[in-house]
Write a structure and sequence with these properties.
alpha/beta; two-stranded antiparallel sheet; 8 helices; 40% helix
């Protein structure tokens, strides 16, 4: 918290605490939806924080497409239900290599992207979807606080770039929210 000194007419110094209410912003990776499937009480807490204006959660078309590709219809329905029950916002990706279509972006790189996507991908084209999520969350347009993912390599690749947006685990996310 910040403190401001305020002098009243009597020359007494009064310290006023100002709490800057920072709203946490977080992009969810697909593997976190699996975690949330098992955490109904935590989902209720997330919705409560969203309602109070303390948290905003986001997903991209990458997550939606990954869920659509799940062959087990029951599992796909369960994960879709988690998304429908959360106060979550969908945003288009800021980076999509040519040949990849996600939501409103078909091939291209937004001028707002700050991620070194080539370094992030590192020649491994299996990492393109992760790069799309990372480039979007960390772009100058959004500058989210966190990407929540249990993918260790994803976290390492993003955090090594010293971005404002940090990749954290589900457990770390819960701790940051006081759970």
């Amino acid at each position: 918290s910040r403190q401001i000194l305020h002098r009243e007419k009597t020359n007494k110094i009064i310290i006023i605490n100002l709490f800057h209410a920072h709203m946490m912003t977080a992009m969810l990776d697909t593997n976190i939806i699996d975690e949330l499937l098992l955490e109904k009480e935590f989902c209720n807490m997330l919705n409560s924080l969203s309602t109070k204006g303390e948290l905003r959660l986001f997903i991209t078309g990458v997550l939606k497409n990954q869920i659509c590709q799940i062959p087990d219809i029951n599992r796909k329905d369960e994960l879709t239900q988690v998304l429908e029950n959360l106060k979550i916002e969908y945003i288009p990706v800021e980076f999509a290599p040519y040949g990849y279509a996600y939501g409103e972006c078909y091939g291209g790189l937004s001028p707002d992207v700050t991620l070194d996507h080539k370094k992030f991908i590192g020649g491994n084209y299996k990492e393109i979807e992760d790069a799309m999520i990372a480039a979007t969350a960390s772009s100058d347009k959004y500058r989210f606080d966190y990407i929540v993912t249990n993918d260790k390599n994803f976290r390492k690749r993003l955090n090594s770039q010293k971005m404002i947006t940090k990749a954290i685990t589900f457990i770390e996310f819960k701790k940051k929210l006081g759970n």
